[in-house]
Remorin C-terminal domain-containing protein (Aegilops tauschii subsp. strangulata), 137 residues
Amino acid sequence: SAHQLLQVSANLAADAVLAKVEMNRKLSMVKAWEENQKSKADNRAEHKMSSILSWENTKKAAVEAKLRTREEKLEKKKAEYAEQMRNRVAMIHKEAEEQRALVEARRQEEMIKYQETAAKHRSKGTTPAKKFLTCFG
């Protein structure tokens, strides 16, 4: 009968509406699950990125500290070596000054000796021995 057909039709329409509501509920749950999973993935990735940055900064700082330590050691060695070289130069200069002083003292002794010898020759009226003059000839 027509009434039964209307009833069946209404039931089918109601079932279709219920099925659509159920489908929308499921789609909504899937969307919520997807967004939750994506959010978790983002959080994990951000956490790992933060860990990587922290690791990188720690390693860089260690390398830079090692570099500074090496540079300080090299600067210290350079300063020590420069000091050694200055000391050597000072010793060479001192030795040269001593040698110059010896030469100058010897020259003064010889000048006095020759002045005294010349004074003796003048007072006696003699001349120096021939062998002495050969040094100048």
The mean pLDDT is 92. Helices lie at 2-124, 130-133. The first helix runs from residue 2 to 124. The radius of gyration is 56 Å.
